[in-house]
Predict the 3D structure of the following.
Amino acid sequence: MTKVIAVCLLWLASLHAEALESGSVTRVSDSVLRIEGVLTPAVSKRFYELIDDQIRLIQISSEGGVTESGLDIAEEIQRRALDIEIEDFCASSCANYLFIAGNRKFVKSGAVVGWHGGHSFTPFRPGLDSQARLEEKKVILQREQLLYAKAGVSIDLIVYSGMLTVGALKEGVIRRDYTLWCPSVAELERLGVKNLVSSASWGSAGEIEARLNAMGYLGQSVYVGKSYSYIPEAFLIEKR
């Protein structure tokens, strides 16, 4: 299927899980599972059906998906101290949770790992969410922050990526400075990401955007700079 869903929309996937085409989980060998496609409750359920003490490596190619499903899988990866291998793409809930949870993190040459916010940036929308959903989001926020604390990773990874991709209303249209933040290996390590034992340089923003286009993720605008070295336009105070 042509991948025409913009990754920025997958941040909201937990509100529309029934509309997403589910990904898949397969056992590649006695010690390897592969996760592909959109993370949904069906994917996390299948993951738990297949995981056992023999599995040591999770191969991943995912554009993200349902927040709770990503957390379900990530928490088990973290609990079992499993290694992960990013085959071509890991963004949204995949980057937020599965990538962070991995013990050793192998990133194949040409693969893209990118963030665009999460619940630690904008967890609550009282005007749009029901009270029940707000209570669910409190739990999600706690799980997200606990995952990061256990990994020793700064929650700034989520906060700054959210700042970059939140967008601003201009002439009646939401326009974003960027749709994805792909920090360098050095920046990830500065934020506390450990055990990047095999990784290629992400390259320039233009190179990453070209790779995303070739994979079918069209129209992405990528930022590769350091956290807080650029203040998004949406956060600038207008001069009067």
